Amino acid sequence: MIDKADSNRPERRSALIAHELSRLNIDIAALSEVRFADEGNLREHGAGYTLYWSGKSSTERRLSGVGFMMKNSIATKLETLPRAHSDRIISMRLPLEKKQHLTIFSVYAPTLMAEPADKDSFYTDLRHHLNNTPVTDKILILGDFNARVGKDFEAWKGVIGRHGIGNCNDNGRLLLEFCTEYQLTITNSIFQQKNHLKTTWMHPRSKHWHLLDYVLVRQRDLRDVLHTRVMPSAECHTDHRLVRCKLKLQTKPKPKKKSYPIKAINVCSLSLVEVKTKFQMTLQQKLEEIPPNDDPTPDILWENMKSVILKTSEVLGHTKRKNKDWFDENDQNIQKLLANKRAAHQAHLANPHCSEKKTTFRQVCYTLQRKLREMQNDWWTHLAWKTQSYADMGDYRSFYEALKTVYGPSHQVQSPLRSSDGLDLLTDSTSILTRWSEHFQNLFSANRTVQDTAMDRIPQLPLRDELDEIPSLEETIEAISQLKSRKAAGVDSIPPEIWKDGGPTLHIVLHNLLVCCWEKGLMAAERS
Protein backbone atom coordinates (compact mmCIF):
# COMPACT_ATOMS: atom_id res chain seq x y z
CA MET A 1 0.00 0.00 0.00
CA ILE A 2 2.86 2.38 0.65
CA ASP A 3 3.79 4.77 -2.17
CA LYS A 4 7.57 5.16 -2.46
CA ALA A 5 9.75 6.76 -5.10
CA ASP A 6 11.77 3.58 -5.62
CA SER A 7 8.75 1.27 -5.71
CA ASN A 8 7.85 -0.67 -8.83
CA ARG A 9 4.20 -0.36 -7.88
CA PRO A 10 2.00 2.55 -9.00
CA GLU A 11 1.02 5.44 -6.74
CA ARG A 12 -2.17 5.50 -4.63
CA ARG A 13 -2.57 1.73 -4.46
CA SER A 14 -5.49 2.11 -2.07
CA ALA A 15 -7.45 3.86 -4.84
CA LEU A 16 -6.40 1.28 -7.45
CA ILE A 17 -7.45 -1.59 -5.20
CA ALA A 18 -10.77 0.12 -4.45
CA HIS A 19 -11.50 0.48 -8.19
CA GLU A 20 -10.63 -3.19 -8.77
CA LEU A 21 -12.89 -4.30 -5.91
CA SER A 22 -15.66 -2.12 -7.32
CA ARG A 23 -15.27 -3.73 -10.75
CA LEU A 24 -15.63 -7.18 -9.20
CA ASN A 25 -18.46 -6.04 -6.88
CA ILE A 26 -16.65 -7.13 -3.71
CA ASP A 27 -18.46 -6.02 -0.55
CA ILE A 28 -15.69 -6.60 2.02
CA ALA A 29 -12.05 -7.42 1.30
CA ALA A 30 -9.40 -8.57 3.78
CA LEU A 31 -5.97 -7.13 2.98
CA SER A 32 -2.53 -8.33 4.09
CA GLU A 33 0.82 -6.53 4.08
CA VAL A 34 -0.89 -3.14 4.22
CA ARG A 35 2.20 -1.60 5.87
CA PHE A 36 0.47 1.59 7.02
CA ALA A 37 1.56 2.92 10.41
CA ASP A 38 -0.53 2.54 13.59
CA GLU A 39 -4.26 2.23 12.93
CA GLY A 40 -6.86 4.34 11.17
CA ASN A 41 -9.16 4.60 8.19
CA LEU A 42 -9.13 6.20 4.76
CA ARG A 43 -12.12 6.83 2.52
CA GLU A 44 -11.80 6.53 -1.25
CA HIS A 45 -14.73 8.63 -2.46
CA GLY A 46 -14.20 7.90 -6.14
CA ALA A 47 -14.60 4.12 -5.90
CA GLY A 48 -16.92 4.19 -2.86
CA TYR A 49 -14.79 2.18 -0.42
CA THR A 50 -13.37 2.73 3.06
CA LEU A 51 -10.08 1.21 4.24
CA TYR A 52 -9.51 0.30 7.91
CA TRP A 53 -6.03 -0.89 8.87
CA SER A 54 -3.89 -2.04 11.78
CA GLY A 55 -0.10 -1.92 11.63
CA LYS A 56 3.08 -1.33 13.56
CA SER A 57 3.97 2.08 14.95
CA SER A 58 5.55 4.71 12.72
CA THR A 59 8.90 4.21 14.47
CA GLU A 60 9.12 0.49 13.60
CA ARG A 61 9.93 -1.25 10.35
CA ARG A 62 6.63 -2.20 8.76
CA LEU A 63 6.59 -5.44 6.74
CA SER A 64 3.17 -6.65 7.86
CA GLY A 65 -0.11 -4.87 8.53
CA VAL A 66 -3.69 -6.02 7.96
CA GLY A 67 -6.92 -4.29 7.07
CA PHE A 68 -10.43 -4.32 5.67
CA MET A 69 -11.64 -2.47 2.60
CA MET A 70 -15.42 -2.34 2.42
CA LYS A 71 -18.13 -0.51 0.54
CA ASN A 72 -19.15 2.75 2.17
CA SER A 73 -22.72 1.47 2.37
CA ILE A 74 -21.50 -1.34 4.64
CA ALA A 75 -19.17 0.87 6.68
CA THR A 76 -22.15 2.99 7.71
CA LYS A 77 -23.94 -0.10 9.09
CA LEU A 78 -21.16 -1.01 11.53
CA GLU A 79 -22.27 -0.72 15.14
CA THR A 80 -18.63 -0.65 16.30
CA LEU A 81 -15.38 0.34 14.65
CA PRO A 82 -13.12 -2.48 13.43
CA ARG A 83 -10.80 -3.47 16.28
CA ALA A 84 -7.07 -3.34 15.59
CA HIS A 85 -5.55 -6.11 17.70
CA SER A 86 -2.05 -6.14 16.23
CA ASP A 87 -0.16 -5.74 12.97
CA ARG A 88 -1.30 -9.29 12.09
CA ILE A 89 -4.92 -9.38 13.30
CA ILE A 90 -7.85 -6.99 12.88
CA SER A 91 -11.53 -7.82 13.38
CA MET A 92 -14.95 -6.31 12.78
CA ARG A 93 -18.48 -7.21 13.86
CA LEU A 94 -21.22 -6.84 11.27
CA PRO A 95 -24.89 -6.87 12.33
CA LEU A 96 -27.11 -9.32 10.44
CA GLU A 97 -30.84 -9.89 10.31
CA LYS A 98 -32.69 -11.70 13.12
CA LYS A 99 -30.38 -10.26 15.80
CA GLN A 100 -27.38 -12.21 14.50
CA HIS A 101 -23.82 -10.97 14.00
CA LEU A 102 -20.89 -11.91 11.78
CA THR A 103 -17.41 -11.46 13.25
CA ILE A 104 -14.77 -11.19 10.53
CA PHE A 105 -11.02 -11.50 11.09
CA SER A 106 -8.38 -10.31 8.64
CA VAL A 107 -5.07 -12.01 9.43
CA TYR A 108 -1.53 -12.27 8.15
CA ALA A 109 0.39 -15.26 9.55
CA PRO A 110 4.20 -15.46 9.82
CA THR A 111 6.01 -17.08 6.90
CA LEU A 112 7.37 -20.62 6.88
CA MET A 113 10.89 -19.37 7.68
CA ALA A 114 9.76 -17.24 10.65
CA GLU A 115 10.80 -18.08 14.20
CA PRO A 116 8.60 -20.73 15.90
CA ALA A 117 7.97 -18.27 18.73
CA ASP A 118 6.44 -15.80 16.26
CA LYS A 119 4.13 -18.47 14.86
CA ASP A 120 3.06 -19.58 18.34
CA SER A 121 2.44 -15.97 19.33
CA PHE A 122 0.24 -15.40 16.27
CA TYR A 123 -1.98 -18.43 16.91
CA THR A 124 -2.10 -17.68 20.65
CA ASP A 125 -3.40 -14.19 19.90
CA LEU A 126 -5.90 -15.51 17.36
CA ARG A 127 -7.16 -18.09 19.87
CA HIS A 128 -7.55 -15.36 22.48
CA HIS A 129 -9.68 -13.22 20.19
CA LEU A 130 -11.80 -16.17 19.07
CA ASN A 131 -12.42 -17.13 22.69
CA ASN A 132 -13.69 -13.58 23.31
CA THR A 133 -16.07 -13.76 20.35
CA PRO A 134 -19.70 -14.54 21.31
CA VAL A 135 -20.47 -18.21 20.66
CA THR A 136 -23.64 -17.23 18.81
CA ASP A 137 -21.72 -15.15 16.25
CA LYS A 138 -20.97 -16.47 12.81
CA ILE A 139 -17.21 -16.39 12.19
CA LEU A 140 -15.30 -15.62 9.00
CA ILE A 141 -11.48 -15.69 9.06
CA LEU A 142 -9.76 -14.35 5.94
CA GLY A 143 -6.14 -13.84 5.08
CA ASP A 144 -2.70 -14.99 4.08
CA PHE A 145 -1.77 -17.88 6.40
CA ASN A 146 1.48 -18.66 4.54
CA ALA A 147 0.49 -22.32 4.90
CA ARG A 148 -0.09 -25.30 2.62
CA VAL A 149 -2.74 -27.63 4.05
CA GLY A 150 -2.68 -30.30 1.32
CA LYS A 151 -5.61 -32.53 0.38
CA ASP A 152 -5.78 -35.31 3.01
CA PHE A 153 -9.48 -34.84 3.73
CA GLU A 154 -9.80 -38.25 5.42
CA ALA A 155 -7.24 -37.36 8.09
CA TRP A 156 -8.80 -33.92 8.64
CA LYS A 157 -12.51 -34.61 8.27
CA GLY A 158 -14.66 -31.53 8.57
CA VAL A 159 -11.65 -29.26 8.15
CA ILE A 160 -10.58 -30.04 4.57
CA GLY A 161 -12.99 -30.85 1.78
CA ARG A 162 -12.50 -33.34 -1.04
CA HIS A 163 -10.98 -30.79 -3.40
CA GLY A 164 -7.79 -29.63 -1.71
CA ILE A 165 -4.53 -29.17 -3.56
CA GLY A 166 -0.82 -29.77 -3.02
CA ASN A 167 0.99 -31.11 0.03
CA CYS A 168 0.96 -30.07 3.67
CA ASN A 169 3.88 -28.24 5.33
CA ASP A 170 4.65 -27.22 8.93
CA ASN A 171 2.62 -24.04 8.76
CA GLY A 172 -0.21 -26.05 7.25
CA ARG A 173 -0.26 -28.42 10.23
CA LEU A 174 -0.48 -25.46 12.60
CA LEU A 175 -3.47 -24.15 10.65
CA LEU A 176 -5.16 -27.57 10.51
CA GLU A 177 -4.74 -28.06 14.25
CA PHE A 178 -6.18 -24.62 14.88
CA CYS A 179 -9.19 -25.34 12.62
CA THR A 180 -9.79 -28.68 14.33
CA GLU A 181 -9.71 -27.06 17.77
CA TYR A 182 -12.33 -24.45 16.82
CA GLN A 183 -14.36 -26.62 14.41
CA LEU A 184 -13.58 -24.49 11.38
CA THR A 185 -13.73 -25.51 7.72
CA ILE A 186 -11.34 -24.36 4.97
CA THR A 187 -13.86 -23.40 2.30
CA ASN A 188 -11.22 -23.24 -0.46
CA SER A 189 -11.21 -27.07 -0.49
CA ILE A 190 -14.97 -27.59 -0.63
CA PHE A 191 -15.73 -26.83 -4.27
CA GLN A 192 -14.65 -28.81 -7.32
CA GLN A 193 -12.93 -26.53 -9.84
CA LYS A 194 -9.80 -26.23 -11.91
CA ASN A 195 -6.50 -25.87 -10.09
CA HIS A 196 -5.88 -22.34 -11.36
CA LEU A 197 -9.07 -21.32 -9.55
CA LYS A 198 -7.66 -22.67 -6.27
CA THR A 199 -4.03 -21.55 -6.11
CA THR A 200 -3.15 -18.03 -4.98
CA TRP A 201 0.65 -17.66 -5.08
CA MET A 202 3.44 -18.76 -7.44
CA HIS A 203 6.84 -19.71 -6.02
CA PRO A 204 9.37 -17.33 -7.63
CA ARG A 205 11.97 -20.06 -8.27
CA SER A 206 10.06 -23.26 -8.99
CA LYS A 207 7.20 -21.38 -10.73
CA HIS A 208 4.76 -23.78 -9.04
CA TRP A 209 1.44 -22.44 -7.85
CA HIS A 210 0.31 -22.97 -4.23
CA LEU A 211 -2.70 -22.21 -2.06
CA LEU A 212 -1.71 -19.89 0.83
CA ASP A 213 -4.76 -17.63 1.29
CA TYR A 214 -7.82 -19.10 2.97
CA VAL A 215 -11.42 -18.46 3.94
CA LEU A 216 -12.43 -20.19 7.20
CA VAL A 217 -15.94 -20.52 8.64
CA ARG A 218 -17.56 -22.46 11.47
CA GLN A 219 -18.52 -25.95 10.36
CA ARG A 220 -22.09 -25.33 11.52
CA ASP A 221 -22.30 -22.30 9.16
CA LEU A 222 -20.90 -24.02 6.07
CA ARG A 223 -24.34 -23.84 4.45
CA ASP A 224 -23.93 -20.06 4.25
CA VAL A 225 -21.00 -20.43 1.82
CA LEU A 226 -22.15 -20.46 -1.80
CA HIS A 227 -18.73 -20.56 -3.49
CA THR A 228 -15.04 -19.87 -2.86
CA ARG A 229 -12.66 -19.41 -5.76
CA VAL A 230 -9.69 -17.43 -7.00
CA MET A 231 -10.31 -14.45 -9.30
CA PRO A 232 -7.38 -14.57 -11.79
CA SER A 233 -8.60 -11.43 -13.55
CA ALA A 234 -8.05 -9.28 -10.45
CA GLU A 235 -4.74 -7.44 -10.83
CA CYS A 236 -3.52 -5.10 -8.09
CA HIS A 237 0.27 -5.32 -8.52
CA THR A 238 0.71 -8.05 -5.91
CA ASP A 239 2.12 -11.57 -6.11
CA HIS A 240 -1.03 -13.02 -4.48
CA ARG A 241 -4.30 -13.54 -6.31
CA LEU A 242 -7.67 -12.47 -4.97
CA VAL A 243 -9.86 -15.14 -3.33
CA ARG A 244 -13.59 -14.44 -3.56
CA CYS A 245 -16.07 -16.09 -1.20
CA LYS A 246 -19.79 -15.70 -1.78
CA LEU A 247 -21.94 -15.92 1.35
CA LYS A 248 -25.69 -16.14 1.71
CA LEU A 249 -26.10 -13.54 4.44
CA GLN A 250 -28.32 -10.51 4.88
CA THR A 251 -27.01 -7.48 6.74
CA LYS A 252 -29.24 -5.67 9.17
CA PRO A 253 -30.87 -2.68 7.45
CA LYS A 254 -30.20 0.73 8.90
CA PRO A 255 -33.16 2.35 10.69
CA LYS A 256 -34.88 4.70 8.30
CA LYS A 257 -34.68 8.31 9.40
CA LYS A 258 -36.16 11.45 7.98
CA SER A 259 -33.36 12.50 5.67
CA TYR A 260 -32.37 15.80 4.17
CA PRO A 261 -29.78 16.66 1.53
CA ILE A 262 -26.32 16.35 2.99
CA LYS A 263 -24.69 18.09 0.05
CA ALA A 264 -23.48 21.61 0.70
CA ILE A 265 -25.86 24.28 -0.62
CA ASN A 266 -24.32 26.45 -3.34
CA VAL A 267 -24.81 29.82 -1.60
CA CYS A 268 -22.54 31.50 -4.17
CA SER A 269 -25.48 31.45 -6.59
CA LEU A 270 -27.28 33.94 -4.30
CA SER A 271 -24.99 36.60 -5.79
CA LEU A 272 -27.07 36.33 -8.99
CA VAL A 273 -30.11 38.60 -8.70
CA GLU A 274 -32.47 36.33 -10.66
CA VAL A 275 -31.49 33.26 -8.61
CA LYS A 276 -31.85 35.12 -5.31
CA THR A 277 -35.28 36.47 -6.32
CA LYS A 278 -36.50 33.03 -7.39
CA PHE A 279 -35.22 31.49 -4.14
CA GLN A 280 -36.97 34.11 -1.98
CA MET A 281 -40.27 33.80 -3.86
CA THR A 282 -40.23 29.98 -3.77
CA LEU A 283 -39.30 29.98 -0.09
CA GLN A 284 -42.04 32.50 0.74
CA GLN A 285 -44.65 30.41 -1.08
CA LYS A 286 -43.67 27.17 0.66
CA LEU A 287 -43.47 28.80 4.11
CA GLU A 288 -46.96 30.27 3.68
CA GLU A 289 -48.26 26.78 2.76
CA ILE A 290 -47.25 25.35 6.16
CA PRO A 291 -50.56 24.49 7.91
CA PRO A 292 -51.23 26.46 11.12
CA ASN A 293 -50.96 24.75 14.50
CA ASP A 294 -52.99 25.81 17.54
CA ASP A 295 -50.41 24.60 20.05
CA PRO A 296 -47.05 24.43 18.28
CA THR A 297 -43.90 23.15 19.94
CA PRO A 298 -40.35 24.27 19.11
CA ASP A 299 -39.68 20.88 17.52
CA ILE A 300 -42.69 21.14 15.19
CA LEU A 301 -41.90 24.71 14.15
CA TRP A 302 -38.23 23.92 13.58
CA GLU A 303 -38.81 20.76 11.55
CA ASN A 304 -41.40 22.47 9.35
CA MET A 305 -39.12 25.43 8.66
CA LYS A 306 -36.02 23.28 8.17
CA SER A 307 -37.69 20.90 5.71
CA VAL A 308 -39.01 23.81 3.63
CA ILE A 309 -35.59 25.50 3.52
CA LEU A 310 -33.76 22.36 2.47
CA LYS A 311 -36.32 21.49 -0.20
CA THR A 312 -36.23 25.03 -1.57
CA SER A 313 -32.42 24.98 -1.62
CA GLU A 314 -32.67 22.88 -4.79
CA VAL A 315 -33.17 26.22 -6.53
CA LEU A 316 -29.60 27.16 -5.58
CA GLY A 317 -28.07 23.78 -6.41
CA HIS A 318 -25.27 22.07 -4.53
CA THR A 319 -21.53 22.46 -4.55
CA LYS A 320 -19.31 19.68 -5.81
CA ARG A 321 -17.04 17.88 -3.39
CA LYS A 322 -13.87 19.89 -2.86
CA ASN A 323 -10.38 18.84 -1.91
CA LYS A 324 -10.09 16.10 -4.51
CA ASP A 325 -6.57 14.78 -4.80
CA TRP A 326 -4.62 14.13 -7.97
CA PHE A 327 -6.06 10.63 -8.40
CA ASP A 328 -9.70 11.74 -8.25
CA GLU A 329 -9.18 14.67 -10.60
CA ASN A 330 -7.60 12.39 -13.23
CA ASP A 331 -10.15 9.61 -12.75
CA GLN A 332 -11.27 9.36 -16.40
CA ASN A 333 -7.73 9.12 -17.77
CA ILE A 334 -6.79 6.61 -15.08
CA GLN A 335 -9.80 4.44 -15.91
CA LYS A 336 -8.62 4.26 -19.54
CA LEU A 337 -5.14 3.20 -18.42
CA LEU A 338 -6.61 0.56 -16.11
CA ALA A 339 -8.80 -0.75 -18.93
CA ASN A 340 -5.70 -1.17 -21.12
CA LYS A 341 -3.92 -2.97 -18.30
CA ARG A 342 -6.89 -5.30 -17.75
CA ALA A 343 -7.02 -6.16 -21.45
CA ALA A 344 -3.29 -6.95 -21.51
CA HIS A 345 -3.64 -8.99 -18.33
CA GLN A 346 -6.54 -11.02 -19.74
CA ALA A 347 -4.54 -11.71 -22.91
CA HIS A 348 -1.60 -12.87 -20.80
CA LEU A 349 -3.84 -15.15 -18.69
CA ALA A 350 -5.35 -16.67 -21.83
CA ASN A 351 -1.89 -17.62 -23.11
CA PRO A 352 0.60 -17.47 -20.19
CA HIS A 353 3.39 -19.16 -22.18
CA CYS A 354 3.42 -16.51 -24.90
CA SER A 355 6.45 -14.31 -24.27
CA GLU A 356 5.08 -11.55 -26.49
CA LYS A 357 1.89 -11.15 -24.45
CA LYS A 358 3.85 -11.32 -21.22
CA THR A 359 6.14 -8.55 -22.46
CA THR A 360 3.14 -6.49 -23.58
CA PHE A 361 1.55 -6.82 -20.14
CA ARG A 362 4.75 -5.69 -18.43
CA GLN A 363 5.05 -2.71 -20.76
CA VAL A 364 1.45 -1.71 -20.04
CA CYS A 365 2.14 -1.92 -16.28
CA TYR A 366 5.23 0.25 -16.66
CA THR A 367 3.24 2.74 -18.74
CA LEU A 368 0.55 2.87 -16.05
CA GLN A 369 3.16 3.51 -13.38
CA ARG A 370 4.87 6.23 -15.43
CA LYS A 371 1.61 7.97 -16.38
CA LEU A 372 0.36 7.97 -12.79
CA ARG A 373 3.56 9.58 -11.58
CA GLU A 374 3.39 12.16 -14.37
CA MET A 375 -0.19 12.99 -13.39
CA GLN A 376 0.84 13.32 -9.77
CA ASN A 377 3.80 15.57 -10.57
CA ASP A 378 1.74 17.79 -12.88
CA TRP A 379 -1.02 18.07 -10.27
CA TRP A 380 1.40 19.05 -7.50
CA THR A 381 3.14 21.58 -9.76
CA HIS A 382 -0.17 23.21 -10.69
CA LEU A 383 -1.33 23.19 -7.05
CA ALA A 384 1.89 24.86 -5.89
CA TRP A 385 1.57 27.56 -8.57
CA LYS A 386 -2.10 28.15 -7.77
CA THR A 387 -1.50 28.31 -4.01
CA GLN A 388 1.33 30.81 -4.45
CA SER A 389 -0.80 32.98 -6.75
CA TYR A 390 -3.58 33.12 -4.12
CA ALA A 391 -1.02 34.21 -1.52
CA ASP A 392 0.39 36.88 -3.86
CA MET A 393 -3.10 38.29 -4.50
CA GLY A 394 -4.01 38.24 -0.81
CA ASP A 395 -6.92 35.83 -1.42
CA TYR A 396 -6.41 33.96 1.83
CA ARG A 397 -9.70 32.08 1.72
CA SER A 398 -8.73 30.43 -1.58
CA PHE A 399 -5.19 30.05 -0.26
CA TYR A 400 -6.30 27.96 2.72
CA GLU A 401 -8.76 25.97 0.60
CA ALA A 402 -5.88 25.07 -1.71
CA LEU A 403 -3.82 24.00 1.29
CA LYS A 404 -6.56 21.59 2.33
CA THR A 405 -6.21 19.67 -0.92
CA VAL A 406 -2.63 18.82 0.05
CA TYR A 407 -3.93 16.27 2.54
CA GLY A 408 -5.65 14.17 -0.12
CA PRO A 409 -8.53 11.81 0.73
CA SER A 410 -10.08 11.66 4.18
CA HIS A 411 -7.58 10.01 6.51
CA GLN A 412 -8.75 9.53 10.07
CA VAL A 413 -7.31 7.91 13.15
CA GLN A 414 -9.54 5.56 15.10
CA SER A 415 -10.89 7.22 18.26
CA PRO A 416 -11.98 4.59 20.79
CA LEU A 417 -12.23 5.55 24.46
CA ARG A 418 -11.37 3.83 27.71
CA SER A 419 -14.15 3.16 30.22
CA SER A 420 -14.14 5.12 33.48
CA ASP A 421 -12.29 2.30 35.25
CA GLY A 422 -9.74 2.08 32.42
CA LEU A 423 -10.32 -1.65 31.85
CA ASP A 424 -12.50 -1.74 28.73
CA LEU A 425 -11.97 -0.18 25.31
CA LEU A 426 -15.16 1.39 23.94
CA THR A 427 -15.49 1.30 20.16
CA ASP A 428 -19.23 1.65 19.41
CA SER A 429 -20.64 5.14 18.98
CA THR A 430 -23.30 4.79 21.70
CA SER A 431 -20.79 3.79 24.36
CA ILE A 432 -18.37 6.54 23.27
CA LEU A 433 -21.06 9.23 23.53
CA THR A 434 -22.17 7.90 26.92
CA ARG A 435 -18.58 7.97 28.15
CA TRP A 436 -18.12 11.58 27.04
CA SER A 437 -21.37 12.52 28.79
CA GLU A 438 -20.19 10.79 31.95
CA HIS A 439 -16.84 12.58 31.76
CA PHE A 440 -18.33 16.07 31.48
CA GLN A 441 -20.93 15.40 34.16
CA ASN A 442 -18.17 14.47 36.57
CA LEU A 443 -16.12 17.45 35.42
CA PHE A 444 -18.75 20.18 35.76
CA SER A 445 -21.14 18.84 38.41
CA ALA A 446 -18.59 18.41 41.18
CA ASN A 447 -19.49 20.20 44.43
CA ARG A 448 -17.22 23.16 45.02
CA THR A 449 -17.05 25.44 48.04
CA VAL A 450 -17.05 29.17 47.37
CA GLN A 451 -16.12 31.51 50.21
CA ASP A 452 -18.42 34.45 50.95
CA THR A 453 -15.48 36.85 50.89
CA ALA A 454 -14.78 35.84 47.29
CA MET A 455 -18.42 36.45 46.36
CA ASP A 456 -18.33 39.87 48.01
CA ARG A 457 -15.38 40.91 45.83
CA ILE A 458 -17.41 40.42 42.64
CA PRO A 459 -18.72 43.81 41.47
CA GLN A 460 -22.53 44.01 41.46
CA LEU A 461 -24.23 45.53 38.42
CA PRO A 462 -27.79 46.86 38.23
CA LEU A 463 -30.46 44.50 36.95
CA ARG A 464 -31.59 45.00 33.34
CA ASP A 465 -35.20 43.85 33.23
CA GLU A 466 -35.49 44.61 29.50
CA LEU A 467 -33.25 41.61 28.76
CA ASP A 468 -36.07 39.35 29.98
CA GLU A 469 -38.51 40.69 27.41
CA ILE A 470 -39.47 38.64 24.35
CA PRO A 471 -37.13 39.53 21.46
CA SER A 472 -38.77 41.67 18.81
CA LEU A 473 -38.79 40.99 15.09
CA GLU A 474 -36.45 43.94 14.58
CA GLU A 475 -33.96 42.47 17.06
CA THR A 476 -34.16 39.11 15.29
CA ILE A 477 -33.47 40.69 11.90
CA GLU A 478 -30.56 42.68 13.34
CA ALA A 479 -29.05 39.51 14.85
CA ILE A 480 -29.39 37.71 11.50
CA SER A 481 -27.66 40.56 9.68
CA GLN A 482 -24.67 40.24 12.01
CA LEU A 483 -24.07 36.59 11.06
CA LYS A 484 -20.73 36.08 9.34
CA SER A 485 -20.96 34.78 5.79
CA ARG A 486 -18.91 31.97 4.23
CA LYS A 487 -18.99 29.91 7.41
CA ALA A 488 -19.65 26.16 7.55
CA ALA A 489 -23.21 24.99 8.17
CA GLY A 490 -24.11 23.08 11.31
CA VAL A 491 -25.92 19.77 11.69
CA ASP A 492 -28.94 21.26 9.92
CA SER A 493 -26.90 21.82 6.69
CA ILE A 494 -28.20 25.42 6.50
CA PRO A 495 -25.43 28.01 5.97
CA PRO A 496 -25.76 31.58 7.33
CA GLU A 497 -26.31 33.06 3.85
CA ILE A 498 -29.73 31.34 3.72
CA TRP A 499 -30.90 33.16 6.86
CA LYS A 500 -29.51 36.49 5.66
CA ASP A 501 -30.88 36.33 2.09
CA GLY A 502 -33.99 34.21 2.69
CA GLY A 503 -36.32 37.19 2.71
CA PRO A 504 -38.76 38.76 5.22
CA THR A 505 -41.10 35.75 5.38
CA LEU A 506 -38.27 33.51 6.58
CA HIS A 507 -37.33 36.11 9.21
CA ILE A 508 -40.91 36.18 10.51
CA VAL A 509 -41.10 32.37 10.72
CA LEU A 510 -37.75 32.23 12.52
CA HIS A 511 -38.92 34.95 14.94
CA ASN A 512 -42.07 32.94 15.70
CA LEU A 513 -39.87 29.95 16.53
CA LEU A 514 -37.72 32.04 18.89
CA VAL A 515 -40.83 33.40 20.64
CA CYS A 516 -42.17 29.86 21.08
CA CYS A 517 -38.87 28.72 22.59
CA TRP A 518 -38.83 31.79 24.85
CA GLU A 519 -42.38 31.31 26.15
CA LYS A 520 -42.17 27.54 26.65
CA GLY A 521 -38.61 27.54 27.97
CA LEU A 522 -37.65 24.81 25.49
CA MET A 523 -35.26 24.43 22.57
CA ALA A 524 -35.82 22.32 19.49
CA ALA A 525 -34.23 18.92 20.21
CA GLU A 526 -31.84 19.15 17.24
CA ARG A 527 -30.57 22.56 18.35
CA SER A 528 -30.19 21.80 22.07
Automatic annotation (TrEMBL):
Residue ranges of domain Endonuclease/exonuclease/phosphatase in the record: 5-223
Gene Ontology MF terms in the entry: endonuclease activity
Organism superkingdom: Eukaryota
Protein keywords: Endonuclease, Hydrolase, Nuclease
InterPro entries in the cross-refs: Endo/exonu/phosph_ase_sf (IPR036691), Endo/exonuclease/phosphatase (IPR005135), Swc5/CFDP1/2 (IPR027124)
Statement: the UniProt record of this protein carries the keyword Nuclease: yes
SUPFAM superfamilies on file: DNase I-like
PANTHER family xref list: BUCENTAUR RELATED (PTHR23227), ENDONUCLEASE_EXONUCLEASE_PHOSPHATASE DOMAIN-CONTAINING PROTEIN (PTHR23227:SF84)
Entry protein name: Endonuclease-reverse transcriptase
The species this protein was found in: Plakobranchus ocellatus
